[in-house]
Every structure is written in structure tokens, then in C-alpha cells.
Design brief:
single chain, 13 helices, 3 strands, 4% strand
């Protein structure tokens, strides 16, 4: 554990390892967006690389500025600016009501919406379902609640980073935390030579299909019902 803690940007080192590994084994498979991302990422200032990696390794793609606090990175606005300029992040994204609910706690939501006494007693999930039909359109944070107390950021490269993770591990269940556990000595990965014939993906269509299946699984786990087949006439 001391090794991982001593290197405060261990996660960035691991992300570079992932990119190097993918380029070495999947150069002929990578799509144009993935290749452009890798090139752009390597040209970013190190603070911006570290911030993008931190965001990519978290479950959400939209963040309150106050939740992005990393001592080894420093001021978030300065690290975020090159990401916005490169088209990898948005510092004023439109938010649908589901994303708004994910960002705000219940007292903040109660202060934002005019609700009946009975509605105010509902839990967040039930309150969201009550309000969703009334607010179908995304809005920027200040349009939802007036002058925003803090910035909101969206990682535009979240899905792309997810595809790179799936390519590296070749499965759904291994996450970014595997790198940390390896640094701590909890996991030890076996060294296996990966040839073109034995790699998990042979063309980009396979990568896209695999990622689509992963997203479907995540939506099911989140409680979204499967699409209904049309009834036969």
C-alpha cells in the first residue's frame, strides 16, 4: 500500500500503461475517435491528464465542482481549462432532471421546486418520477436554480474511456480499481503474451458490440425496464 500512496499520481501512471498497452496490441483496431483521444491526452498538461483520469475512474460523468478536490492536482479550474478547450469536458453542460437529482441532495431539491406538502415527504426516487414528466428538457445548472453556487462539469470522453477500459481488461467486471489493488500487492497479474490471433477483439465492430452490451447491462442494473417488443397483430 505504501508504494501506491507514495506516488500520488499512481492512477495517471496506470492510465498511461493502459493506453500504451492498447496502442501496442490494437493499433489496427482503434477507431478514429480513440486514436485522436490518445494523441490529444498525451499533449495535455499533466494536471489536466490527472484530472481527466480521476473523472474517468469515477462512476458518474457529471460532477459538481466542489466534489473535484484532489490535493495533488491543485486548482480544478486551471486543470479543467485545457480539457474544455480540447473538447474532452464541458464546463457548462445541459442537465436533464435525472442528472440534476444525481447532483443535488434532497434539501437542495426541495428549495428548488415548488411542491405540495405531501410531495415534500417523498423520497428522492419517487420525487424524481413525479417531476420528470413536468420537466422534459435539459437545462444548464443556472437555468435550473438561478445563480449556481458552484460550477458543474461533464466529462465528454467518459464513454470513450469506458471502451478503452473494456478493451484492456476484455470483460465487464474488472474496473479501474484493479490497478490500485495491483499496486498494493493484493492482485498479481500473470504475464501473458497477447498475439493478434489471441487478443479479445479482432475489429472495431466487435469493440462497439461489446460496449453496447455493457451499456445495456448497466441500464438493467440501474432499474431501467427492457424495451417491450411490439405486440403481434
Amino acid at each position: 500500500m505504501l508504494r501506491a500512496v507514495a506516488d500520488r499520481r499512481y492512477y495517471l501512471r496506470n492510465f498511461h500503461t493502459l493506453l500504451d498497452w492498447i496502442e501496442q496490441r490494437y493499433a489496427d483496431v482503434l477507431g478514429a475517435p480513440e486514436g485522436a483521444f490518445i494523441t490529444t491526452f498525451r499533449r495535455l498538461p499533466e494536471d489536466s491528464q490527472a484530472l481527466l483520469t480521476r473523472m474517468a475512474m469515477r462512476k458518474a460523468a457529471v460532477f459538481r465542482g466542489g466534489k473535484l478536490r484532489y490535493p495533488e492536482i491543485g486548482p480544478i479550474d486551471a486543470a479543467m481549462r485545457p480539457l474544455v478547450e480540447a473538447g474532452l469536458a464541458d464546463d457548462d453542460p445541459p442537465l436533464d432532471i435525472g442528472q440534476l437529482f444525481a447532483l443535488l441532495n434532497k434539501p437542495e431539491l426541495l428549495a428548488l421546486f415548488e411542491l405540495s406538502r405531501s410531495a415534500r415527504q417523498l423520497g428522492k426516487a419517487a420525487l424524481l418520477e413525479l417531476l420528470r414528466p413536468l420537466h422534459p428538457d435539459p437545462r444548464r445548472i443556472q437555468d435550473w436554480r438561478g445563480p449556481a453556487p458552484e460550477r458543474v462539469y461533464r466529462l465528454l470522453a467518459a464513454d470513450l474511456c469506458e471502451r478503452l477500459r473494456l478493451m484492456f481488461f476484455g470483460n465487464f467486471h474488472q474496473t479501474w480499481s484493479e490497478f490500485v489493488l495491483a499496486d498494493m500487492g493484493v492482485f498479481r497479474f500473470e504475464t501473458v503474451e497477447i498475439t493478434r490471433q489471441s487478443r479479445a477483439f479482432q475489429d472495431w465492430r466487435q469493440v462497439e458490440t461489446f460496449h453496447h452490451l455493457y451499456r445495456c447491462r448497466e441500464r438493467l442494473h440501474a432499474g431501467e425496464p427492457p424495451a417491450q417488443e411490439p405486440a403481434e397483430s
